[in-house]
Design brief:
By secondary structure, this protein is mostly helical. The protein has helices at 5-18, 22-36, 53-57, 60-78, 84-97, 102-119, 126-149. The protein is globular and about 45 Å long. The two termini are 22 Å apart.
């Protein structure tokens, strides 16, 4: 299920546009995920008090977390599938400490694609979106494998 060199180039080209503003993109990803999948908020005790869009937008902690999420994803994407070193500690913390189900990674993956498509529609056409979805699917499948190794049925 690997990506071709051309697909990886599409992923990295669009990521190059996303990366200069990880705080605002990350914040938007987390907010949209919470809005479209409110059940995901159950895993974020420090954000449960954020009830309105304005509260979410004004939360520096939420913005910081969004930056952390997209920073980690960027490191993984840049490894072009050779992401064992980055993935192992991430999978461990998400399986053993945070207990994040794989389906929530599916949710955030689709939100990431939607945010990029909204922000960079001219540069993120169907081929680039398909490549990004494929890269994110690879990430989720590898996370699921690590979860299984750790005995987490997420």
């Amino acid at each position: 299920m690997g990506l071709s060199d051309q697909e990886w180039q599409r992923v990295l080209d669009i990521w190059g546009k996303v990366e200069p503003d990880l705080p605002s993109h990350g914040q938007e990803v987390i907010i949209r995920m919470f809005q479209s999948h409110p059940e995901t908020m159950e895993h974020f005790g420090k954000f449960k008090h954020l009830k309105t869009l304005d509260e979410m937008k004004s939360s520096e902690e939420l913005k910081k977390h969004g930056t952390t999420v997209l920073s980690a994803l960027g490191r993984i994407l840049k490894r072009k599938g050779n992401h064992e070193a980055e993935l192992k500690p991430l999978a461990h913390s998400h399986a053993t400490k945070h207990k994040i189900p794989i389906r929530h990674l599916e949710f955030i993956s689709e939100v990431i694609v939607a945010v990029i498509a909204d922000k960079y529609s001219a540069d993120f056409g169907a081929d680039s979106q398909a490549a990004m979805r494929k890269a994110l699917e690879m990430f989720r499948n590898d996370m699921a494998s690590k979860y299984k190794e750790l005995g987490f049925q997420g």
